[in-house]
Specification:
Radius of gyration: 41 Å
Number of strands: 32
Strand content: 35-45%
Structural class: mainly beta
Length: about 350
């Protein structure tokens, strides 16, 4: 039986080993030869073109969207931005990121370079060692409560950045008035003067201007405007409210008067309504909101009821085919005021 049979003799094994050794020697020789040839060849450079750089969009990004956000302590607001995806602009909403100590965030921005728009991502850079100009104060709705004072919110300098401290109510100190803290620039440096209590003036000062309020309306009720009250040593705001109106009565608002150099409060009161109907007040400005297709805006109007005018707010009303809305109006006929109601014509 030859060496390719099932049974393998000792001689066949020796023959097989000799063949494998010879083959290995041939491979080594070829490898040495190839290495020698390769080392003698000059270096061949790759002349292929580098991959093409993808150019940015040629059309300008849309204006940034307005975003509503409130500061969070220790957090940095990263504004939303437009991204170029799939051949069109898509909006990426803003978000909060944890602030980095002694670092300041610079917002990313789009720049036009050679006709192409490129996005430069936002980065964190070293913050100035000293506080620079503080941001504009955040708009707040002051709160009022007897025995307490409203402390305005303010920007505080912390770890190389600005942190917002919200406003709050604080118990009042008898015989004292509160002065809010403030930032001032002196000699090119920004310095913070903390809020503090000081002695109340011996003579009552003039009241502050009334706060802006949005009046409310209700049938059989009257809006009593907010006003300043003198509370021991300072003014405190009393918000406006709706109050039931007695029949044939009219509300006269309270007011501050200066008599002999002293400010005194004349409280509001109900008085008898005039027997003759007076001219209606000017129409109120109303916020209609967004337009509603298929509807028409019916403006609000003054109604005469029990000796005084009451406001009826406007509303949206569904359109009627082939009809047009004619607004109502007040007319003076022979010295008397009469209301012509609106209708569809």
């Amino acid at each position: 039986m030859n060496c390719y049979g099932v049974r393998i003799r000792v001689g066949c094994a020796s023959q097989y080993l000799h063949m494998k050794t010879a083959r290995l020697g041939t491979i080594l020789a070829l490898a040495i030869g190839v290495t020698g040839v390769a080392s003698a060849q000059p270096v061949v450079r790759d002349h292929r073109e580098p991959p093409a750089v993808v150019a940015g969009p040629t059309e300008a990004p849309p204006p940034p969207k307005a975003e509503q956000w409130r500061p969070k302590h220790g957090q940095q607001w990263v504004a939303g931005n437009w991204e170029w995806k799939g051949g069109k602009w898509t909006w990426k909403a803003g978000h909060f990121e944890g602030r980095k100590k002694n670092q300041r965030y610079n917002e990313g921005k789009w720049e036009n370079k050679g006709g192409n728009w490129q996005w430069n991502a936002g980065t964190w850079n070293a913050a100035p060692a000293e506080p620079d100009q503080p941001p504009a104060p955040i708009e707040e709705q002051p709160q009022s409560r007897h025995g307490q004072v409203w402390v305005k919110g303010y920007w505080a300098w912390e770890n190389g950045g600005w942190e917002w401290t919200p406003g709050k109510l604080q118990p009042r100190t008898k015989g004292k008035v509160w002065a809010d803290g403030h930032w001032d620039n002196g000699g090119g440096k920004w310095n913070w003067t903390a809020g503090a209590w000081s002695d109340a003036p011996k003579v009552r000062p003039a009241p502050p201007p009334p706060r802006e309020e949005q009046p409310k309306f209700g049938r059989g009720q009257v809006w009593v405007a907010g006003h300043w009250d003198w509370d021991d040593s300072d003014y405190i705001w009393t918000p406006g409210k709706l109050q039931p109106r007695p029949k044939n009565k009219r509300w006269n608002e309270g007011k501050w008067d200066n008599a002999g150099g002293e400010w005194k409060w004349q409280a509001g009161a109900f008085v008898d309504a005039p027997k003759e109907q007076a001219a209606p007040p000017p129409p109120r400005t109303e916020d209609q909101g967004p337009a509603k297709p298929g509807y028409v805006w019916v403006a609000g109007n003054w109604d005469w009821s029990n000796g005084d005018y009451e406001w009826t707010p406007g509303h949206w009303e569904r359109e009627r085919r082939g009809k047009a809305w004619a607004a109502g109006h007040w007319d003076n006929n022979g010295g008397k005021w009469a209301w012509t109601a609106g209708k569809w014509n």
